[in-house]
Design goal:
This protein is an alpha+beta fold. It folds into three domains: 66 residues, Membrane-bound Lytic Murein Transglycosylase D, Chain A (Roll), CATH 3.10.350; 139 residues, L,D-transpeptidase catalytic domain-like (Beta Barrel), CATH 2.40.440.10; 62 residues, no CATH class. The chain has six helices and 18 strands. The strands form five sheets. The chain has a nine-stranded mixed β-sheet with strand order 1-8-7-6-15-10-11-12-14, covered by helices on one side. Strand 6 and strand 7 form a beta hairpin. Helix 1 packs across helix 2. InterPro entries: LD-transpeptidase (IPR050979), LD_TPept_cat_dom (IPR005490), LysM (IPR018392), LysM_dom_sf (IPR036779), Transpep_catalytic_dom (IPR038063).
Length: 288
């Protein structure tokens, strides 16, 4: 499949039937000589780390004409109530469950996100959208101003709305003090752990989400790197990279314990295969 670069469309899916929790399907495209994985990711509403993890042998900046690119566009929904906004930090994706409309099937809309980098982690837990702000200004906290000053890039006390504002054109303030879901003037950072704890979306995605969600919408932030999927009688395991810097042995021990607890009755998996999937953490659901 050949394509030119255009901005992404939101990934909207019908909610699966009771007992199932997977949406979407794995796809692939063929790169042109001028494409980068970052270009292709935005075209298909994927994050940077998401597409590079699914294509570990592909040069992200020079994939090469004719190279097959795997699009990891199949998702196990977070293990959480299907209401409001659910953010899975490990998957670096936001899932929005619009209110059901009479006579219409229920849907889920999912967007890639950028999250907090090491030392500036995005907090977990329940919150809500408290305020919606179009064309926001940004008042950087003193800690961020100090960091920028030390790096030779001083910030003003207030960054006005406009192309230099890192919040982009739209922001959804959370009831967690100091945290927002917002756009960005650096879309290459979507799908990476680069923020100071806020949730950033592609400009076109935050515009769409901003138009859909009212103030008061509940928000749940989880960190679920390991997800057990169910689809039409089949079971799958989806694994993402850890957001913490835990030692490998500690991660393996925790993963083994998680598998023991979550594998369906009668299911077994070779420990070597499971550890290989854990190491790869490519975000592609593997059949059990």
């Amino acid at each position: 499949m050949m394509f030119g670069f255009t901005v992404a469309r939101a990934s909207t899916y019908l909610l699966p039937s009771a007992g199932d929790n997977m949406v979407g399907a794995i796809q692939s495209v063929t790169a042109r000589h001028e494409d980068t994985l970052s270009d292709i990711a935005r075209q298909y509403d994927l994050g940077y780390d998401q597409i590079t993890a699914a294509n570990p042998r592909v040069d992200p900046w020079l994939p090469g004409e004719g190279t097959r690119i795997v699009l990891p566009t199949e998702y196990v929904l977070p293990d959480a109530p299907r209401q409001g906004i659910v953010i899975n930090l490990a998957a670096m994706r936001l899932f929005y469950y619009p209110p059901a409309q009479a006579g219409q099937p229920s849907e889920v809309i999912t967007y890639p996100i950028g999250v907090g980098r090491e030392g500036w982690g995005t907090p977990l837990g329940k919150t809500r959208i408290s305020v919606k702000i179009a064309n926001p200004s940004w008042t950087p906290p003193e800690s961020i101003r100090k960091e920028h000053a030390e790096n030779g890039d001083p910030l003003p006390a207030v960054v006005p709305a406009g192309p230099d504002n890192p919040l982009g054109q739209f922001a959804l303030r959370l009831a967690l003090p100091g945290y927002l879901i917002h756009g960005t003037n650096k879309p290459w950072g979507v799908g990476m752990r680069v923020s100071h704890g806020c949730i950033r979306l592609y400009p076109e995605d935050i515009a769409a989400l901003f138009a859909k969600v009212p103030a008061g919408t509940p928000v749940l932030i989880v960190n679920q790197p390991w997800l057990l999927g169910h689809d039409n009688g089949h079971d799958y395991l989806q694994i993402f990279s850890q957001t913490s810097e835990a030692p490998a042995a500690q991660t393996q021990e925790a993963f083994t314990a998680w598998l023991t607890q979550h594998l369906p009755p009668g299911k077994a998996i070779d420990s070597r295969i499971a550890q290989g999937w854990l190491k790869a953490a490519n975000g592609i659901p593997e059949p059990l």
